[in-house]
Amino acid sequence: MAAPRKPPKSHSRRASNRRTRPGNTRVPGVVDSEGSRYGARDEEFWLRQDTRLAGQLGQPCCTLSGMCTLLGTMDGNFSVIIHGERDCGGCFVSHRMPGNQRFYCTGISEAQATSGRVDEPLEQCLRLVLAEGPDVVLVLTTCVINMIGSQPEPVVERVALDTDIPVLLLRTSGLRLSTQAEMVDWLFESLAGLPQLPEGDNRWRQRLRTMLHETSHALYADNDLTREDVEARFSRALADGPRAPERVCNLIGLPPDGVRTSELLDALTAAGIAVAGLYPFDTDLDAWRRISHAAVNVVADRRLYPRLLGRLEGEHGMPTVEVPLPIGLGQSVRFYRRVGEFFGVHDELQRILAPRIEAVTAKVDEFRDRARSTRLAMGIRMLNNYRVDQLAYEGLGDVDALAELGFDVTLLVQGAPEERPRFEEMLEALGCRLPFHVFPSPWELAPLLAQGDYQVAYLADHSWEEAQKAGVPMIKSRELAPLLAGVEPNLAVLSALLQAAEAGRGEVHR
Amino acid sequence: MKPPSEALEAFALRAHHYGRISGVSVAVHAIADGFHLLHTGVGCKYKAAAQISTHDWARQPHRREGWTEVGDAALIRGAAARIGPYVRSWYDRQRPGLIVVSSTAFLEMTGEDIAGAVRQADETVPCPVRYVPGSGFDGDLYDGYRDVLRTVLDLIPWDQTEPEHGRVAVVGYLFDRYESDHSANVHQLRTLLRELGLNLEAVLFGGQPLASLMRAARAETLVVLPYAYGLESALRATGRRVIHTDLPVGVRGTTAWLEQVGRTSGVPETKVADVTRRLARYTRQELELLRNRVVGVRSAVFAEAPLAAGFCDLLDEVDMPPALVGIRGRSLGDDADLAAALTRIGAPLRPDATVLTDPSYRLVRRALLDAIATRRVSAAVGSAAELSDLSQGKVRERLRDHLDASGIGGDLGAGQDIRFAPLIACFPATGFHALHPQPTFGFGGAVAIAQRLLDGLYSGRS
């Protein structure tokens, strides 16, 4: 028995759509409907649509969804109120968030929305939440609240008068198509703008706190971590002597790092540099309320954080050191060089790191012989996961790491094919002259991968099916481990990828 | 720590917080060639396929989902006109068998004729295009799923097809992924019906393309599971015999289901009795292995009311009676409905059991940790929403935090004697993926769950 189909009409119903055809090439089986009843009208629509989207770099993002996602994974004694309809409590994958118990929703009804009587549930919810005694409350709004022109500010201000607890109202929504970078910067600047905790002589506590956080996260994720691993970590931290205040830094936008694989804190500590916090990964609310206690911000891609750095530089007089994303040998070395030069400890850092650099350089050289000229497809602009290390340098943070290993990298940029000139400009501005293709949506990846004769791929995690169809083994993008300690594990993963390519398998799980 | 505020509980994020859009997304995902077009704001994308993508490793739902890219400017100018071009574009790209357009609260509040725009779009592509309103003010995942069921029931040519004797269609199976747990459930349904001499024609939904669902028209009998609630008029319009049943989960639950379906379908009573006696006896023999080793062990259950009833039945059967039950959502029933379902199958809850209806994440966490800490509960069956944070590697850490914060006191010591087996068995099931058939339905499901409980309780013990 066939699925219900309607009788054919006289005109073609297969509308022309520029976005259906990467590079405007014809898709086999699709009837060209130039002159069809809907073709011309739709063409006009898509032209307007392209004009509207021009000038936006990242994938559009809902600021409510993005902030809930980031706050759901952040530790701390804070609460989040989603002010709006019940449905928007589902705008993030909360069941995977350890902090989902800190979220509340005013759950306004249709009658309340249409009559504009939405202040009462907000006030009630806010007062109840404040009575629980959180350190901070964040109130986030939904599209409906913005659409009906509700002004929650007076309610929040009135309730806040009765308490010392900071209440932060952020007019979030999905109506204004923000970029992920804008959202991330807005949230971080807002958190950094919270009343800062008193400084006191707590730098050693900060360091210890950072270690505890990192360790607890590692324990959470890795049940095999041994007691000796943890003890060694804390012994090193506690053996550390006092540091000069000007040598205390924040690390902003670096990839998350594990206890066992990180040489970062060890190396910096040995060179006399203290790390106050790792933002945003492994950071809790209190860390944001101490962000001004450090002297310097070490930042991967400062263009991501105009608001945050504006506040830290302007209000707190903290200078910024921009560093590459420390993925792979070359970028890790440049990362340490930038930090070392800024703090005047370059030689010291070089001495500390020399044995590691020497060891991994040999392995990289060896691997390069094996991977040389292997065609690798690297996808960018494919994700809306709000990860700053994914957003840094327009998603190109891993390119150097792959190129230094001899891979012949081609970029697959997700976006409207008509926007190719703009992407070209964007890549050139970043000094990237790699060949690239633009494709409109992930479902077109399989033919693109097959046509490109790629041997391996580095793509967003949701691309497994497409890569398998094309018979191209892939690993998930932004899964390469950072720093010098990450080089060897990365080579192991990439080695498995090459093996899978040689064996003709379609996937590699990490 | 202060006791939890009951007034605040009303605002706290539910452990089952999914709205209608999530349900529409799950339902469209369950139709192999379905396509879900979201006429919504950008954040609504996270209410749809994003909620399923880590749950279903067998089939990526993003591939069959589109978005009309509504923003503020489109809202001001009128956004409904966007639907047609997107429908045509996605039809060209994917050639789906069915396109379901769903919307959201702020767009529906504009009063634009979204339904009209969808009807117009429907005229321009060969496959059916249907509108499922997705108001975000009320309704949950099950409502959205049910709305798509209604849409598909309306597409089936009931009047043009002669029903055939002995053929059955199951309406209202909640199919949320293409992994082997669900294919095993469908197989269980088919096998159970075959034992009664009935043939399963179609499952709405069971991962088949729309064309296969049309075979439901051949069915003489529609077995309607609880997820197809509130569809009386649509079901009446089919002209078929309709049997509303509980879920065939647990030994008594499956037995009751077979008896009800057999009796109403005209299967001789002696045959029904033979089948149920034989299969139940065999299953109970299998379950003995677990039953003999769990004396005094109590359990917790987190699921929507009909499924919770099945799990409670099974856990009671293996002498692990539930001490705590959390009912996910309200649309499929509350504590009274759970009690009624358990009474129907003869497996009432113990009087000391606590039942929470539509609890929040915080209430679930608090209640479960309290129950584990006081040794009231040593195993739980539920979803990742309740249990992923209490996996065996994490439960001791969580307990320690909980005891510290609540001031309950009590020294866990090294926590060696704390035993807790979390078993993720329903959506969202991130953290549990089925490579081989592991049903929850039928007698096979009872044994499969018992096996997982045994593994969970005794892993690492000799």
Task: Fill in the keyword field for this structure.
heterodimer, A: 510 residues, 20 helices, B: alpha/beta, 4-stranded parallel beta sheet, 43% helix
What can be said about this structure in brief?
Chain A is 43% helix and 13% strand. A five-stranded parallel sheet of chain A has the order 13-12-11-14-15. Chain A has a four-stranded parallel sheet with strand order 3-2-4-5, with helices on both faces. In chain A, strands 8-7-9-10 form a four-stranded parallel sheet.
Return the average pLDDT of chain A rounded to an integer.
Answer: 83
Using only C-alpha atoms, the radius of gyration of chain B works out to 23 Å
Structural class of chain A: alpha/beta
Alpha-carbon distance between the two ends of chain B = 39 Å
Strand order of the largest sheet of chain A: 13-12-11-14-15
Percent strand of chain A equals: 5-15%
- The number of strands of chain B is 13
Beta percentage of chain B is 5-15%
Largest beta sheet of chain B, briefly? 5 strands, parallel
Q: What Rg of chain A do the Cα atoms give? A: 25 Å
Give helix % range of chain A: 40-55%
Low-confidence stretches of chain A: 8-35
**Biggest β-sheet strands, sense, barrel of chain A:** 5 strands, parallel
Number of helices of chain B: 19
Count of extended strands of chain A: 15
Q: For the largest interface in this structure, which chains are involved and how many residues does each contribute? A: A-B, 83 and 91 residues
Quaternary state, please? heterodimer
Q: What is the rounded distance between the termini of chain A?
A: 43 Å
Helix content, binned percent of chain B: 40-55%
Helix-strand category of chain B: alpha/beta
Could you characterize the architecture of this molecule?
The complex is a heterodimer of chains A (510) and B (462). Chain A has 20 helices and 15 strands. Chain A is α/β, with parallel strands linked by helices and 510 residues long. Chain A has a five-stranded parallel beta sheet with strand order 13-12-11-14-15. Helix content of chain B is 43%, strand content 15%. Chain B has 19 helices and 13 strands. Chain B has helices at residues 6-9, 20-29, 49-53, 72-77, 83-94, 105-108, 114-122, 141-155, 180-195, 210-213, 232-236, 251-265, 269-291, 305-317, 335-344, 361-373, 384-387, 395-406, 442-458, and strands at residues 34-39, 65-67, 98-103, 129-132, 164-171, 199-204, 219-224, 241-244, 299-303, 322-327, 354-357, 379-383, 421-426. In chain B, the strands form three sheets. A five-stranded parallel beta sheet of chain B has the order 11-10-9-12-13, sandwiched between helices. Chain B has a four-stranded parallel beta sheet with strand order 2-1-3-4, sandwiched between helices. In chain B, helix 5 runs parallel beside helix 7 (114-122), helix 12 packs antiparallel against helix 13 (269-291) and helix 16 (361-373) packs across helix 18. Chain B is globular and about 65 Å long. The mean pLDDT of chain B is 91.
